[in-house]
Write a structure and sequence with these properties.
By secondary structure, this protein is an alpha/beta fold. It is built from 15 helices and 17 strands. The structure holds pyridoxal-5'-phosphate. Residues 62, 122-124, 127, 156-158, 225, 229-230, 258, 260-261, 286 line the site of pyridoxal-5'-phosphate (PLP). InterPro entries: Aminotrans_3, Aminotrans_3_PPA_site, PyrdxlP-dep_Trfase, PyrdxlP-dep_Trfase_major, PyrdxlP-dep_Trfase_small.
């Protein structure tokens, strides 16, 4: 163990409580209890803490460590790039080789006519950038009122003010000022309504209804996750993304696919939306682009948006110090090289079947396990009081948190998606390199 004595660990925990304000953590509980776990090292699907206890990382940390922990080739790519040129700016016309090569590579993998990429340092920055680019596109086309963004209930798009406002989970709006901009939330996954079925009792508040009420002339873009992650592993129903895309085309609204979780193989295709063969106008990526080994995100734009933006003859006043970071881009390039070389998508599709076998077993044995689902290795299930009647647990029963806690005691890290009142969803998303024995374990 790194820390030989409990005194040393207590000391570290004391410093943690005193100096480190943690993201997405209950502050009061943290101060009372200290860190749940302090990670020290990782290897494949396993992570080990400072006490030398080893866990299975069943959610790839924040669904991002796709090639697993301790991947030496990614470490080497970062080391070599840092020794050559750790950092350089991409502002004012400056460039670097790794950013250029990664841009070309990502565009070559992307569907349809997605043609260029703007780099960021993560998913929230990508979504904020996507909103700005969408508005800017309409602005340059003389449609200055097209500014509103529609997002979907239960979605997660990030924590900056714009991406946080687009997020459709209330728990992320209680942090001061986190829902300030002009974003309208639509109900989720109502394929029939989006196709125009006004007799559907859920029609009010669907995307189509919002467009009719607000007027297409005021709306810049609609953002969707092909599979909603943090909101509870909700896979877009058949026909839904196509219906949204058609609605966008009908009304001259841009479609943004948030591929921050789904991108780079998580769902068994290179991008989540590829499962439905729909081509968005804008796509945001992050997480899986480097498997979490470096902070990197990007926004892909289609040919029309690119052709419009490149006509602009003043400074494009948007960018981040770490846009096109050479070390992050070197890691991204190596990450994609390994994804392709080792045929990781194939493994994802095979392991999806193994995971489903486990789910079938669980559903057979356990009367509370309902709605088991996975797309690639983005999986989840509901816990219900009575699955035959779709009856949820009483709101006081935090069944998903309970199960996740019990798994943790048995050295398996999972995630509860129980932000929605009365919903108890357990999320599973192991690294994409997971093997059959590890899934069984
Ligand atoms: N979009 C989706 C779908 C996400 O799951 C996340 C993070 O979990 C984000 C955006 C935000 O990314 P980041 O935390 O890198 O800013």
């Amino acid at each position: 163990a790194v820390y030989q004595t409990s005194l040393q660990i207590e000391n570290l925990n004391g410093l943690d409580k005193k100096y480190y304000l943690h993201p997405t953590t209950v502050p009061k509980k943290f101060i009372e209890e200290g860190p749940k776990i302090t990670f020290h090292k990782g290897d494949g699907v396993y992570v080990t803490d400072v006490k030398d206890d080893t866990y299975i990382d069943g959610v790839s940390m924040l669904w991002n460590v796709n090639l697993g922990h301790g991947q030496k080739e990614l470490a080497k790519a970062a080391y070599e790039q840092m020794n050559t040129l750790a950092y350089s700016s991409s502002f004012y016309g400056y460039s670097n080789e790794k950013a250029v090569r990664l841009a070309e590579k990502v565009v070559s993998l992307a569907p349809g006519d997605l043609s260029a990429v703007f780099f960021t340092s993560g998913g929230s920055e990508s979504n904020d950038t996507a909103f700005k680019l969408a508005r800017f596109y309409w602005h340059l086309n003389g449609r200055k009122n097209k500014k509103k963004i529609i997002s979907i209930n239960r979605s997660y798009h990030g924590a900056t003010i714009a991406a946080g406002s687009a997020t459709g989970i209330d728990a992320f709006h209680n942090f001061a000022g986190s829902k300030d901009i002009d974003i309208i939330q639509a109900k989720s996954h109502l394929t029939n309504c989006e196709l125009g079925d006004k007799s559907d009792p859920n029609y009010e508040g669907c995307i189509r209804d919002i467009i009719e009420k607000e007027g297409a002339e005021s709306i810049a873009a609609i953002i969707v996750e092909p599979v909603q992650g943090a909101g509870g592993i909700h896979i877009s129903p058949e026909g839904y993304l196509r219906a949204v895309k058609d609605l966008c085309e009908e009304n001259e609204i841009l479609m943004i696919s948030d591929e921050v979780i789904c991108g780079f193989g998580r769902t068994g295709k290179m991008f989540g939306i590829d499962n439905w063969e729909v081509v968005p106008d804008i796509m945001s990526v992050a997480k899986g682009i480097t498997s979490g080994y470096a902070q990197l995100g990007g926004v892909l734009i289609n040919k029309d948006i690119r052709d419009t933006v490149i006509q602009y003859d003043q400074i494009l006043g948007h960018g981040f110090t770490y846009s096109g970071h050479p070390t992050a881009c070197a890691v991204g390039l190596k990450n994609i090289e390994i994804l392709e070389r080792d045929n990781i998508l194939n493994n994802v599709n095979n392991m999806e079947k193994e995971l489903m076998k486990g789910f079938d077993y669980l559903s057979d044995k356990h009367p509370h396990v309902a709605k088991t689902r996975t797309l690639g290795l983005l999986a989840g299930f509901d816990l219900q009081a009575d699955r035959d009647t779709d009856k949820p647990f009483d709101e006081s029963i935090r069944a998903a948190s309970f199960i996740v806690e019990e798994c943790f005691k048995r050295k398996l890290i999972l995630r509860a998606a129980d932000f929605e009142k009365g919903k108890n969803i357990v999320a599973i998303a192991p690294p994409l390199i997971v093997n059959k024995e590890e899934i069984e374990e």
